[in-house]
Amino acid sequence: MVKIHSFVVGVLSTNFYVIENENAFSVIDPGGKEAVEITTQFLEKGLKLKHVLITHAHPDHIGFAKSLLKLESKAKVFTHEKTPDILPTFLEWAELWNLPYVEITPKDIETLKDNDVIKIENIKIKIIYTPGHSPDSICFYLENEKILFSGDTLFKYSIGRADLPFGNIELLKRSIIERLYSLPDQVHVFPGHGNKTTIGFEKKNNFYVTR
Ligand SMILES: [Zn+2]
Ligand SMILES: [Zn+2]
To answer: Among 176, 174, 135, 169, which residue's Cα sits nearest to residue 153?
Structure first.
């Protein structure tokens, strides 16, 4: 059975998630150095790290991905196919804003596109492409378990910023309405920052995009 573990890491309080299933686990958004210690603890339990999943390449989400590859040589970092194009710009601002990160290059990355499916043993994770906050924003959807990892696209009562480089508010709203609000109301949403919510709750109560 799948177990979701949530942790808050890094200087921008990013949610770092561990999806555990059978003898394996995948992680989402290792944006702070604490993610390295947490991942080490799961490896010490004898679990195998399968994927390092990144919702988008902002430094507070991808920051310590490369460090996790050093812990488990067979694991790979997975991002949207647009990430390699914009990664250099995002790493420049990490420096400007003094956000800690470990240098990662496009060759460390395996890319994903809309509707791709990856697996942790028998658990399927579908990729939903949701550009707007960033051109490489994706959500990870466990359809059978009704669980969505929404990155910085959808938050409880709120949505991601669109005023950062390459942000686009119209695209962001469209992604939320067309791709996320079309999911069943009971889907649990685990965002990139803050508390978890559900699709049904946000459709009624979100301050920016309701249905
Ligand atoms: Zn972001
Ligand atoms: Zn963020």
So the answer is: 176
Encode pLDDT of 135-178 as tens digits: 999 999 999 999 999 999 999 999 999 999 899 999 999 999 99
Q: Could you tell me the distance, in angstroms and rounded to a whole number, from the CA of residue 192 to the centre of ligand 2?
A: 6
Terminal alpha carbon distance of the chain: 33
Strands (E), the chain: 3-9, 14-21, 24-28, 48-53, 76-80, 109-112, 117-120, 123-129, 138-142, 147-151, 154-155, 158-159, 188-191, 197-198
Q: How far is the CA of 23 from the centre of ligand 1 (A)?
A: 31
Contact between 61 and 192 under an 8 Å Cβ cutoff? The reply is: yes
For residues 18 and 48, give the distance between their C-alpha atoms in angstroms, rounded to a whole number.
12
Structural domains present in the chain: 3-205 (3.60.15.10)
Tell which phi-psi region holds residue 25, choosing left (phi > 0), alpha (psi between -120 and 50) or beta: beta
- Give per-residue pLDDT as tens, 82-103: 999 999 999 998 999 899 999 9
User: Which tokens is 69 given?
Assistant: 């590859």
